[in-house]
Write a structure and sequence with these properties.
The structure holds 2 protein chains of 2 kinds. By secondary structure, chain A is mainly β. Chain A has strands spanning 4-6, 9-13, 18-24, 31-37, 43-50, 55-58, 61-66, 71-76, 85-93, 98-101, 105-110. In chain A, the strands form 2 sheets. In chain A, strands 2, 4, 5, 9, 10 and 11 form a 6-stranded mixed beta sheet that branches. A 5-stranded antiparallel beta sheet of chain A has the order 1-3-8-7-6, with no helix packed on it. In chain B, the strands form 2 sheets. In chain B, strands 2, 4, 5, 6, 9, 10 and 11 form a 7-stranded mixed beta sheet that branches. In chain B, strands 1-3-8-7 form a 4-stranded antiparallel beta sheet, with no helix packed on it. The relative contact order of chain B is 0.32. Classes of the chains: A mainly beta, B mainly beta.
Chain lengths: 111, 118
């Protein structure tokens, strides 16, 4: 079945780069997403990547996709305290027509 | 901007009570979803709906039901609340595949309702 895995916690210093990793199982996924959840709030779509792309850059965010290994990563350059949040990876599962979410990675940014 | 609103941010209910959680979206989206979020478990899909009066079970529908009488509104019902239903409940909406934007099937989320059942 479909499954999306992420590490639970990442701690970085302000100004450093953060890399959040995700692995997924559905090789037919066409879209993969990163969502951000700030404390007490809903999920906000950060960025997405289509499966025929290897990389997508959007200001401080870089998404890398390795289809062979079914590995997705989100790099945040110059991490700020405002980036502290939970980050969810999600894949579109074509077979079930559903978004499958990972467990979320809590990013803690130390000043 | 897409707006998804949920009727309450915080709710406290007693065991056995009937609980209604309301969700409204203003972008004419066909699809609507209810998730619950628990620490270490991520988001789990409870029910979803592709159209008015249509509903489909998600991964954890037991103890819940839904209602979609109007396109913009999707309600989650806990017929008899239990303590193991204490959780954060998130509603989301999305356009159909045929109307999907460049981002495909992205879902837009409401702020969440934190439900405590005592």
């Amino acid at each position: 079945g479909e499954d999306v895995e992420q590490s639970l916690f990442l701690s970085v210093r302000e100004g450093d780069s953060s890399v959040i990793n995700c692995t997924y199982t559905d090789s037919s996924s066409t879209y993969l997403y990163w969502y951000k959840q700030e404390p007490g709030a809903g999920l906000q779509l950060l960025t997405y990547i289509f499966s025929n792309m290897d990389m997508k850059q959007d200001q401080r965010l870089t998404v890398l996709l390795n289809k062979k290994d079914k590995h997705l990563s989100l790099r945040i350059a110059d991490t700020q305290t405002g980036d502290s949040a939970i980050y969810f990876c999600a894949e579109w599962a074509r077979a079930t027509n559903k978004l499958i979410f990972g467990t979320g990675t809590l990013l803690a940014v130390q000043p | 901007d897409v707006k998804v609103t949920q009727s309450s941010r915080y709710l406290v209910k007693r065991t056995g009570e009937k609980v209604f959680l309301e969700c409204v979206q203003d972008m004419d989206h066909e699809n609507m979803f209810w998730y619950r979020q628990d620490p270490g478990l991520g988001l789990r899909l409870i029910y979803f709906s592709y159209d008015v009066k249509m509903k489909e079970k998600g991964d954890i529908p037991e103890g819940y039901s839904v209602s979609r009488e109007k396109k913009e509104r999707f309600s989650l019902i806990l017929e008899s609340a239990s303590t193991n239903q204490t959780s954060m409940y998130l509603c989301a909406s999305s356009p159909t595949a045929g109307r999907a934007g460049a981002g495909g099937y992205e879902q837009y989320f409401g702020p969440g309702t934190r439900l405590t059942v005592t």
